[in-house]
Every structure is written in C-alpha cells, then in structure tokens.
Structure to design on (216 residues):
C-alpha cells in the first residue's frame, strides 16, 4: 500500500513508519522538521515537510494518490494541557483533503480516557485514576474528542485507536483489543504495538467505523 503518516517524528509515528517500510509499503512521512525523523533513508520512504497540518490545501498533496492515511497526531504531540489544540483541527483538514482526493482508509491514534471505562473496572481506576486524568488533562482530551468527532463525521473508512499509558518497549504483537470500548485492566502498551494496531486497522473490516481500545 501507499501510506501517508502524519506525526511521523513522534514516538508512535516513527514506529508506524518503520513497521510500514518493513512490511513493504510505500510511505510518505509528514513532518515539520525532517531532521527529527529518526528513521533511516529508504527507497520507499518520501519525507514531506508540512508546517500547517490544519490547512486543507497544504495537506491535499500529501494524501492524494495514497491508499491509506495514518495519523499519529495525538497526546504525544501536545504534551501540555494548555497547549493549542492540534489533533482536532488537523484531522478536520486531513479528512476534508482525503474526501477531495478520494482516499478512504484512515486510522488515527487517540487515548483511552477519551472512551468510556470498561465494565468491571476496579474502583480505584473509576474513582481516582480516570477522573484525575480527565481533570488534569481536560484540554488535551477535549482536543482528542474533537479529533474523534471530526473523523466520525468524515466520509472515510476510519478507525480510532485508544491506548492507555505508552511505553518505549519492544513490539509484542500480542496486545489486547476491545471494539468500541477500553480494555479491562489495560494500564500500559508499547508504542510499537500501538503502531501495529494503526497499520492493521485499515485492512481489518471489523475495525471500520469503530473506536478500538488496545492494551498489553
């Protein structure tokens, strides 16, 4: 496949680029600063510098002619709770550009606290962990919720992937998934496994039009 990856210099985005190349795909890595892309040059890798991913006209050339788009724009790209929203405006522009270009398959990373708590989750998580996260990082999660709304309103065959806390540990390929829910007891997941989920989703019909919780 020909895949465009947004947020390619982030922890998840770099893993998406690496894994996509390893799988034989042609990859367009969208970056603000090419020097920050910690992925070796490759004959199937095109690095596209885009300074404003919230502008449809600017985004259109990097999605045109592709088979799928992966967005790794999310919490890792917007660390401060008071930071300017990124994911929501970006995905509104990206999906509009995809619609104009006739590109349909899309996967995008979100975060577990945007979704509902799974049935049977422990009292401490229900009463302390999630309420605290949602209060401290309310602007960040509001941005991700806007992103999910933009994706769901689009004409794409979309999947949103919702991980819990991210770890810089090796890919396992054995993570758990929950369709339209978070994974019960899911606390952490390697960034490499989130990348795997983002790359798998566009060709998995069971994920189309769904939010998918993932966790180790």
């Amino acid at each position: 496949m020909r895949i465009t990856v947004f947020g390619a210099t982030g922890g998840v985005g770099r893993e998406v680029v690496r894994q996509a190349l390893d799988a034989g795909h042609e990859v367009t890595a969208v970056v603000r600063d090419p020097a920050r892309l910690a992925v070796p040059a490759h004959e199937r890798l095109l690095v596209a510098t885009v300074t404003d991913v919230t502008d449809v006209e600017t985004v259109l050339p990097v999605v045109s002619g592709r088979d799928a788009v992966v967005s790794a724009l999310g919490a890792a790209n917007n660390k401060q709770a008071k930071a300017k929203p990124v994911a929501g405006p970006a995905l509104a522009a990206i999906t509009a550009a995809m619609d104009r270009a006739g590109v349909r398959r899309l996967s995008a990373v979100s975060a577990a606290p945007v979704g509902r708590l799974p049935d049977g989750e422990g009292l401490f998580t229900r009463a302390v962990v999630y309420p605290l996260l949602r209060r401290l990082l309310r602007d960040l999660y509001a941005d991700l919720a806007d992103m999910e709304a933009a994706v769901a309103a689009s004409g794409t065959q979309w999947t949103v992937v919702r991980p819990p806390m991210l770890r810089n540990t090796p890919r396992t390929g054995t993570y758990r998934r929950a369709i339209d829910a978070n994974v019960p007891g899911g606390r952490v997941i390697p960034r490499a496994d989130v990348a795997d989920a983002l790359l798998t989703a566009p060709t998995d019909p069971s994920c189309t039009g769904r939010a998918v919780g993932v966790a180790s």
